[in-house]
Every structure is written in structure tokens, then in C-alpha cells.
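dumping these here so i dont lose them again. two proteins, back to back, each one seq then C-alpha cells. dont judge the mess
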Amino acid sequence: MLSRSMRILVLNSGSSSIKYRLLDPPRSEALAGGLIEEVTDHREGLHRIVSSVSGLGIQAVGHRVVHGGDLFREPLLLTPVAVERLRSLNPLAPLHNPANLLGIETAREVWPDVPQVAVFDTAFHATLPPAAFTYAIPEDLARRHGIRRYGFHGISHGFIARRTAALLQRPVASTRLISLHLGNGASAAAIRAGRSVDTSMGLTPLEGLVMGTRSGDLDPAILPLLVRATGRSADDVETLLLRDSGLKGLAGTNDMRELEQRADAGDERAGRAIEIFAYRLKKYIGAYAAVLGRLDAVSFTGGIGEHSARIRSACLKDLELLGLVLDEAKNLAPAKGEREIGAGPVRVFVIPADEEVEIAAQTAACLEASRGTP
């Protein structure tokens, strides 16, 4: 429990956009917020944000950072030394961390006297056991290059774990659940007692589920095969798997809404893409039920998880053996907010993602801990 009110500006600085929200964590009250799109100059973008929050009394800034590597397993109070340590992780997430870092550096210039904290997407998965995070490659090679499963979407999965426990009316420590964050990026997590014990994304956010433009799981031999067969460079093939694969590669678009409309109109390519997306999900649900040994709930979040009744139904179909049964009337109902849609012994929830609330809470807790606040 936070001991006092604290106005925290949450910044999610991407390569071409900056999302922001000003929150008071104890009440999760949004005092301001918005999205600055097509950012070519982060300083100019942040100055626009400064204008919109001027006079609202910012007391701290919390930054989303995608990759914390092995260095950072909890929120980090940002100092010049800490920022330089963050810079060393850019090679692990070249599409995300440099943009996150640029937002941090700019915010520290704009608000030099305001304490700032980095909150990591990978930190929630720092509890993975060795059997889950270790790849079967030579140990010295893996250690030398930091090759292991890190996992991502941890801010979202941590939030969902706590909200699911609240909906179950049980302590987090006594719950076992599967969290499904389904959007343009998608990942699954097996969570026992509030701690991640397995997750679908790996060294990078490319592994795991089929995503909007990312392939997800592949036979590793496909990469060198494509290099040899097409004459493309390894970097070009990596870009192909990151930006032109997944749903986009299967059916020409990464918009699930468009795919569902096309499938309803008889488009076989769109229907097959949806089937593949749901099938991969189903496999992970079954695997993670086995990992957990007992399953209390499955929770859906993210744009697709929250809004696609079709995907929820398809990936849970025929999983009665796991205690998973949908109430299709509730699943199809056009509802917003947290809701239960299951009809079996394992509860099924839809929980809107709110990463900004989670970042603000972790930022406040980090600052209180650094000040020795009880």
C-alpha cells in the first residue's frame, strides 16, 4: 500500500510515438493523457506534453522500458550512471530500447529536478526457473552473449495477475493462472503465486504466439534456409520475420477486425490466418496448464483479447478436459470493462490492459523504497 498521494507522469516512448498519462497511483486517477504520433523529434514531442500537463504538479516520471536484460530485475531509479548501463542493453532490443532511452534522456532534460524511474517489461519474468529460461545451446556461448528467455509484456502480465486474483477473491499467492496478452504483439504467461514461471516470448519479442507482423515460433533452420535461398542478408530475413510475417504474412493485414470481416465474407486466406492464430494459442494454453499443475483462471487482455469473441471462443474450444468452458452468451455480449465469460470450474476473465497504472504504481513504490518510506 502506497503511503501517500504522488502525481506521476507515465511515458511510453516509442520510435514514432509517445504515449503519456498523468496518474495518482493510490486512486489510479487519470489527470491528463494522450498520444503524440509520428514523432520525428522526441524533444519537440515531449515539449508538447509539457504544455498539456503544465501546472498539474508532476512529482515523478515513470518510463516503460522493454528490455532489462540480466541487469535490471526491478524498477530502476534513473541516474546518469543508470542511464549509461541502460544503453548497454540496446543490442538486445534494437527496435524498442533505443526509443525508450531517447524518451528517458529527453525527459531528464525537460524535468531535471523530477525523480524518474524505468519500469521494465522483462522484470516480471525474472522469476522464471532455469528449466524455462535456458535454451539448449552450449552453456558457455549462452552465458557469454546473454542468450536466454527473458519474456516481455511483463508489466501487463503482472497487472493481470493481480486483477485476476482480486476477481477470484483470493490472495495472489494462492492462484495459478494463464494470462494472454493479445494484440499486435502477443504473449502468454504461466503465473503461479503471482510469479511468472513460463512465458512465450524469449530472448526477443519474436518468439512464441503468432502476432500481427511477427512470425512467432519457427524451426530455427528456416532462417539460414531463407538466407541461402533468397540471397537476402540475415538482417533482411530478421526484418521479414519481425515486420512482414504473422497475420500480415498469412493474409496481407495485421488487423484482426479486418480478418474477421473477410473471413465472414468467405475469404479462405483470412479464415486460415485466424485458425492458425487460435491454434497456436490453444497449444500454449494446454502446455501452461501442464506447467502449472492446477489452473484457477485464464485471463484475456490486449486489443484482440478484449474485443475478439471469435478468438476467445476458438482458442478455448474443446478444452473441457482442462475445466475450460465458455459461456458463449457472455463471451459474445458487447460489454466493456472487467467481466467473467466462463461457465466451467476454471474461471475465464476479460480484463482491459492498463500498463500505465502498473507503471505508476511501480514507480511510486520504487521512489518510496529509495527514500526509506515505510
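---- next one ----
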Amino acid sequence: MENLNKYDIILKAPGISFKGIDTSTFIDKITSQLQLFLSFFEGKTIGVTGSKGKSTTSSLIYKIIEGQNKNTVLLGNIGIPIFDYIDNLKENTIVVLEISSHQLEYVTKSPNISILLNIFEEHLDHYNSYKEYALAKYNIFKFQTQADFAIYNIDNAIVKNILETKKPLSNKLAISFNNINQNNSIYIKDDFVIYKENDSETKLYDINDPRKLLGNHNLFNIMCSLAVSKVLNLDIKKTISTINNFESLPHRMEFVGEFDGVKYYNDSIATIPEATMNCVETLNDVNTLIIGGMDRKIDYTNFITFLTNSNIENIVCLPAVGIFIGQDIQKNKNSKNIYQVSTMEEAVDISKKVTKKGTICLLSPAAASYGFFTNFQERGDIFKKLVSK
């Protein structure tokens, strides 16, 4: 790492952090799979990033496009390296990319259609500051042209501030739960998702339609997918059919099963407090919550307040984050039952004993898995295996 300025080209893997390293002497030499791909692929690219919701939104967009008999592929942070599919791509291929902040950190090219779902405190172990993390996310728009489209969450204060301050060249399409009533926007009005362009409103989607993606966070992902459908001029009826039949991905509010009258859910993907809060509010009848994981110095103040004021009776706390959250809640001397455990096996055993019949036991850790598990998938798989036993 001390000799990086001596090389002609640096092909950086996303997981390698330059935190605390002066990159000024070699920053122009840094590239990546994503950078090279965006620089040389001449087909259409759709990029999706955000602290939460990337996998669901990118997968849904891919399924929508595939359902309209178009040549498309889903690559990137979803688990399929871009270079693995180079030989299979054609000029008419629409490439949907799930993109992490780590992949965006040093790019100088942006996708044709870029989506920024949200920005929350995340990955602070990789960056020098929260602002640096947010600016890495902004790179998904930064290098777009006037022919491109920027789809963004205007309800997220950090995203809104960045977009208003930086003002990318691309066509901007704001997404909001509120009736913002502005041109080039998609919002909710009278139980419908509305698209407004040239002072004309078009109803896109009835939010009361039966669908398999539950919760407001997934409704927002759906709205972003509808935005892409409009930009690509896709058949809206086929789009809606795909949306309503789309199954939630594993480890995302995943129903494991009902045992002894208790429903168990696996939400291992929840690595930040906002994701856990969304899940608790969506399921609505959580009696036992299992939390904890790697401490990345995220501020849990609002999360602790949320748990203290919630109807959750049992909070099972895994190291390291769960331990100090549980201790903080106990200080308030409220009615919560706090259980400090060391392993997932202990967590499931206690949950089985204390969770009331007719309610829910939820694994939604609000922290990363690293240091305790290989990744969130392994954490969720172990939980499911233990519950099923």
C-alpha cells in the first residue's frame, strides 16, 4: 500500500479501503471493473445504489425489463461480477447494475439511468467521514450527460441536499411519498402513484393492489421501478403485473415458518437501524427482536428510543452492538426484557422460550455481520436452520 504511486494502473477491488491514505499522487491511476465497463460498453446501463433497497430494486427492474421480452442482464454488487458476462453482452443488451458505494468511490463515468434510493449512516469503517460516504453515492449521477436520467429520493434530506447543491446535468426525476406536485416527479396522491410531466398527471399504480413486496420501503422501491418503466417507455400493464407477482428476496423480511404458534422472520439484510425499524413497523406484531453485530460506530440513539417506545417485549442482544444497545435500554428501567447472548444458537433458544404464541420473532440485527459471520447471508441461513430445528 505504501508503493501505490509507483504503478501505471491500479485496479481496485471494492472491498479495499483507502481510508487514512493520501491518494493525491495516484488517484488518476485508480480504476475498477465498473469504471472500465461504463467507459467502454456502448449499450444502455441502469445503475441502482442506496444504503438500503439496492438488491430488491435492481432485481425488480431487471424482472420488469425481462418480462417485456427485452435482452437484459443483472450484474454487479448483487453477486455477479461484471467481467463474468462481458462475452455475453450485445449492443442491445440493457444492463441493470446493483452498485455499492465502494464501487462508486473512484469512478469517472455514470450509468445512463441512475437511481439513488437513500443515504443513511453505513460503512463508516471504510470512509473517513459520513460526508465522504455520501459523496461516493453521488458519483452515480456526477458524470451523467444531458441525455441521461437521475432518479432520486427527494424525501431523504441528504439525497435532496446533494442533488440541489451539485445539480447534475442529467434529466432529474424526483420520487416522493408526499404530493410534491412538481413536474418530472413521481409521488403518491389519493392512494395512487402519480407521474407528473408537463403539468399533466398520470396514474401509474394503485397502492392498494395486492402485492408480495410489503412495507413502505418496498413501495418506494416499486415507485423507482415505475420511474424506469416510464423512462424506457415500457408497457405499464406488464410492469404492474411483474411488480405484483415479484417475490421478496431471501434474508429480506423472509418468512421462515410458524412453529408452536410463533411466526419467525429472517431480516438479516438489515445492517443499519433504519432497515430494522422499517421491518418492525411493517410486520407490526413483533414480540421478540434479535439484534446485534459488528460495531461500525453508527449512531444508535434514535434506534434505542424507537425500541424503548415500541411494543416489543423481548430484545435478544448479540455482540457487539446488541450488548451496548441492551445495556442502554436497561438503564431506563422500562418493562423490556433484555437478554444478552453470545451466539445465534443461544438467541434462538431464548426466543423460543419467551415469544408469545400468536406473535412474531424477528431477526433484524441493525448491524453488519462481519467478525461474527462471513456475510449477512450466512447469518440468515444459520438463523433459519436453527429455527427449523
